[in-house]
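Reopening this one. Same input as before:
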Amino acid sequence: MIEALGVPHTEVDLIVRNGHAVGFDAQIEADDVIEVYPAHRAPASTSAAHGAALLRPPLRAADLSFIADAHLGGLAQLLRLAGFDTRYDNNFPDDEIEQLAQDESRIVLTRDRELLKRRAVLRGCYVRTLQADDQFREVSERFDLTPHVRAFRLCLMCNAPLRRAGPGDIDGRVPDGVRERHTRFVTCDVCHRVFWEGSHWRRMRARIDALAEAGR
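Same output, byte for byte:
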């Protein structure tokens, strides 16, 4: 009944029927009073009274991995920039997003309510805003990401971990002038790009710091 009204189950963390917390399988009777809350917006008294009955356990830092649909490429890059493992491919069909979310325990990020209503999608977020920076703030607030930001840990293109590059890793792969001005480089073992702390890095650092600060 909740999803029939347009609210995906991923957006609900607490259901109260006639004053008692219930699960999604509760049978509704005539004259029942049903209260539906996302945990981060439930009144404090309600959350305290029914905290043990939340529909899913609180997220841990290890649970903060995502998969984003085709509409959220900018958000996916910002999440990677902040250090959050985020699968994204502009060609992912909904069936594949659902399967990857289930197989890899990922949180689905989407602007498609129907995708979040799929039974195998256990955790997800309907992203309401349209601009990437606003979307990052929205997702950060929803999942309390700020304490877990680890910028420049992942490749923005591949989502693979970056590692410190040695002299042999950068030979012939960076301009001579850059090599003369910088001593620290990192590389991605998937796409083989090399990154250094130039002006572009500083702009991205300032951007993610500002976004993280806004979420404090």
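So the earlier flakiness isn't reproducible anymore. For the record, Strands lie at 14-17, 20-22, 34-37, 66-68, 86-88, 107-110, 124-126, 162-164, 185-188, 194-196.
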